[in-house]
């Protein structure tokens, strides 16, 4: 597939980059307000959706499992995460948020205005189109 360097494509790429940079900047600020690094906040956010083994966290964050182990260790010391056996395979340890960790993850999500406010200005139909376009860009199946 040929790369596209027409002005419209270049503008879209630049806009996507700007959105991503702003999101990460706000995410880092929100994390710092809870004395967390951005990586710790991302792991806590993932775990607030469902407990998971370190290997899967590493896959989702596209980093080394040893990095995730260090992040989990630091979150565990702060009482935000705990390790527990996987009920499906007791040889596997799951990282899961504690009650305090779940509360902190919710507060982090609620403090991220950048992404939420501009999206609120779009209609449901516009948000659905944007979601579907982003899914297509990522090679994901469209939503039903």
From TrEMBL:
Superkingdom assignment: Bacteria
A single BP term in Gene Ontology: response to stress
Annotated InterPro entries: HTH_MarR-typ (IPR000835), MarR/SlyA-like (IPR039422), Tscrpt_reg_MarR-type_CS (IPR023187), WH-like_DNA-bd_sf (IPR036388), WH_DNA-bd_sf (IPR036390)
Gene Ontology MF annotations: DNA binding; DNA-binding transcription factor activity
Alphabetized UniProt keyword annotations: DNA-binding, Transcription, Transcription regulation
Entry keyword annotation includes DNA-binding: yes
Residue ranges occupied by any HTH marR-type domain in the UniProt entry: 9-139
Pfam short name (any one): MarR
Keyword DNA-binding listed: yes
Protein name: MarR family transcriptional regulator
């Amino acid at each position: 597939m040929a790369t596209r360097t027409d002005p419209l494509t270049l503008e879209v790429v630049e806009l996507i980059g700007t959105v991503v940079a702003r999101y990460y900047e706000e995410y880092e600020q929100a994390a710092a307000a809870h004395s967390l690094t951005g990586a710790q906040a991302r792991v806590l956010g993932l775990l607030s959706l469902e407990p998971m083994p370190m290997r899967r966290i590493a896959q989702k964050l596209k980093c080394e499992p040893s990095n995730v182990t260090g992040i989990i260790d630091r979150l565990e010391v702060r009482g935000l995460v705990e390790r527990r056996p996987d009920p499906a395979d007791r040889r596997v340890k799951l990282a899961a948020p504690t009650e305090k960790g779940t509360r902190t993850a919710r507060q982090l999500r609620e403090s991220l205005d950048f992404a939420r406010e501009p999206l609120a200005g779009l209609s449901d139909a516009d948000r659905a189109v944007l979601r579907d376009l982003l899914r297509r860009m990522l090679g994901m199946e469209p939503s039903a």
